[in-house]
Design goal:
Low-confidence stretches: 242-255
Oligomer: single chain
Order of helices and strands: EHEHEHEHEHEHEHEEHEH
Radius of gyration: 22 Å
Strand content: 15-25%
Bound molecules: S-adenosylmethionine
Amino acid sequence: APGLYFVGTPIGTARDITLRALDVLASADVLAAEDTRSLRRLMEIHGVPMNGRTVLSYHDHSGDGARARLMAALADGQSVAYASEAGMPLIADPGYALSRAAAEAGHRVTSAPGPSALLTALTLAGLPTDAFFFDGFLPSAKGARRSRLEALRAIPGTLIFYESPKRIAQALEDAAEVLGPDRPAVVARELTKKFEELRRGSLQELAENLAENPVKGEIVLLVDRGSSESVNQGDIESDLREALTTMTLRDAADL
Ligand code: SAM
């Protein structure tokens, strides 16, 4: 059927692709990918024929030309399948600008969903799953990273970040200082791959562990929500009271 299909691809193990994703890749009129080689390789592994199609390269920043071409195919009533390099498109990956443009133009936007590192990590971490906040990659500059962590300190849910192996020790050290050394955290590494590993501990323990034993590979960092002592309940209540008072005064002035 015509429309834009966001196709989820594996985050490590090639067989973690759904049968429906393979059907969509087999039948789409137009194939587009963040990394054309890795999509072609995945299709080859699973025996999905190209049938004379090519894979177009598309990133949200690849310029308006690439997007215009995909939009023209959609306007023409064709089906367009888009995959990012790994996991779900749009999740710390390109696809957002395309999704918006297709929705604004009134095209059907749908999905052949697959794995994502953030949900995979969350289900393994043993941290609360009822509420969580995914913040993508933390800024690489120390100052910006610390202010970002500061802004997330009172979020009432598990915090989830993607992080590079080069920066994980430093990120944990900053998190221990800004969020508090005792918060439980998990470093989830190489999920679904041969060297899959979970390291659990307090932020302080993990900061020391990762500084002493550096790691390679792909990493998700998860941090438990702050306890009511570390995120001062009194502060939240007085902030709320202040906000309500100002609102009431403003509303009264409007009358
Ligand atoms: N779209 C992907 C998704 O849905 O998870 C994320 C793409 S983002 C550019 C790549 C980052 O995701 C990596 O740097 C790492 O932080 C995380 N990641 C991807 N695959 C992973 C894996 N197998 N194990 C741990 N983290 C992974």
